[in-house]
């Protein structure tokens, strides 16, 4: 049983959120400095609501990302709302499949979910940023060897968790009978083997689940990735932009590392080509005028190769450090 209530009016939502958070605990709990960082703001109404997948493969990654972006919060066991310490933001933990609807039609100001879910929910949300995770495709699948063309499934039984997209897709292929689209909530791949479907529409990343169920990909309906979205009617435009920048800063930081090294001045032109940096490398003179110290951002995935190249080019004291966050511009 989850104690969160979201209604269509903004103030009652915040009130419900606060009620859910503080529950029936004594009033003193609301003054716990751990939970209420702004003693002057006992009244937490009007906070930005941020929808976060409550479980599934996105949950852990997103929670890590939000912490990396400096959103500090304490979530009570079994409670689906958590207030942030240093910002007027409340995280609401919701099923990934419902977040687009809450952001598009409810009072949730921002959220994180898949583009597949946004398309399926048919809602109007602002896509602020791709998050580089949850990359997969929504595909038509059928028992291996049975179907070469998706038109062969038109008019037949198709099982999916994406009924809106599936109906739309097959409507464009039908020449006679309407495709019988049935919606189930998970393990969709089992439905052909269990006699419920002639074909399915589900997500494919590596293809392992599909092949294990004896299926093959017939066609791709869409490619999808996890995105940061906002409610177009939110009153929290500035806070939304602040959160977008923080998350973007964390994502950029997690893609880059900082390499520092010393190099003889006469070899600097070679080293600069190896580490051009994002804008340009920082170069500082050393006591020994024949040498300079250089620091530059490098992509994490190329860092080891870059260090090899620097050493081969005559650099010494090469150090690689992690970056925890950044504000680098988009
Ligand atoms: N195998 C996958 N690879 C990459 N992204 C995926 C994969 N499966 C799902 N996603 C993305 O994550 C979103 C949420 O799916 P996920 O499976 O994490 O949630 P769930 O189905 O609610 O949880 P669970 O499957 O644990 O019950 C999907 O809409 C899609 O955008
Ligand atoms: O191509 P793959 O790498 O095998 O990934 C695809 C599978 O991942 C998702 O399932 P999930 O694990 O979320 O289970 P569910 O079907 O119960 O949601 C998706 O629904 C596919 O079944
Ligand atoms: Mg799933």
UniProtKB/TrEMBL annotation:
Which residue intervals define the domain ATP phosphoribosyltransferase catalytic in the entry? 96-248
* Keyword field: Amino-acid biosynthesis, ATP-binding, Cytoplasm, Glycosyltransferase, Histidine biosynthesis, Nucleotide-binding, Transferase
Tell me if ATP-binding is a UniProt keyword of this record: yes
Protein name in the entry: ATP phosphoribosyltransferase
EC no.?
A: 2.4.2.17
- What catalytic reaction does the record list? 1-(5-phospho-beta-D-ribosyl)-ATP + diphosphate = 5-phospho-alpha-D-ribose 1-diphosphate + ATP
Q: Which residues form the Histidine biosynthesis HisG C-terminal domain?
A: 253-324
Q: Which species?
A: Pelagomonas calceolata
């Amino acid at each position: 049983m989850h104690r969160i209530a979201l209604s269509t009016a903004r103030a009652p939502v915040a009130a419900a959120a606060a009620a859910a958070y503080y529950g029936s605990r004594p009033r003193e709990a609301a003054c716990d400095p751990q939970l209420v960082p702004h003693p002057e703001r006992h009244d937490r109404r009007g906070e930005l609501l941020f929808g976060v997948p409550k479980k599934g493969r996105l949950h852990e990654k997103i929670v890590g990302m939000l912490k990396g972006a400096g959103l500090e919060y304490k979530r009570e066991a079994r409670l689906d709302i958590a207030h942030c310490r240093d910002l007027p933001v409340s995280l609401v933990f919701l099923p990934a499949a419902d977040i687009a609807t809450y952001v598009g039609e409810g009072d949730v100001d921002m959220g994180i979910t898949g583009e597949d879910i946004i398309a399926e929910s048919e809602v109007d949300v602002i896509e602020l940023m791709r998050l580089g995770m949850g990359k997969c495709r929504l595909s038509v699948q059928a028992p291996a060897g049975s179907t070469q063309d998706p038109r062969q499934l038109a008019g037949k039984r198709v099982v999916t968790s994406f009924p809106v997209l599936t109906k739309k897709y097959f409507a464009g292929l039908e020449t006679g009978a309407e495709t019988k689209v049935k919606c189930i909530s998970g393990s969709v791949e089992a439905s052909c083997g269990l006699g419920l479907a002639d074909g399915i529409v589900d997500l494919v990343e590596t293809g392992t689940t599909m092949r294990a169920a004896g299926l093959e990909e017939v066609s791709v309906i869409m490619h999808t990735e996890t995105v940061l979205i906002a409610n177009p009617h939110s009153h929290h435009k500035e806070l939304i932009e602040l959160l977008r920048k923080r998350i973007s800063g964390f994502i950029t930081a997690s893609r880059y590392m900082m390499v520092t090294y010393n190099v003889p001045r006469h070899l600097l032109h070679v080293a600069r080509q190896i580490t051009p940096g994002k804008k340009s490398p920082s170069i500082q003179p050393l006591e020994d005028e024949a040498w300079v110290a250089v620091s530059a951002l490098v992509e994490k995935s190329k860092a080891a190769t870059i260090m090899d190249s620097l050493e081969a080019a005559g650099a010494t004291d090469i150090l690689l450090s992690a970056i925890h966050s950044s504000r680098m511009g988009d």
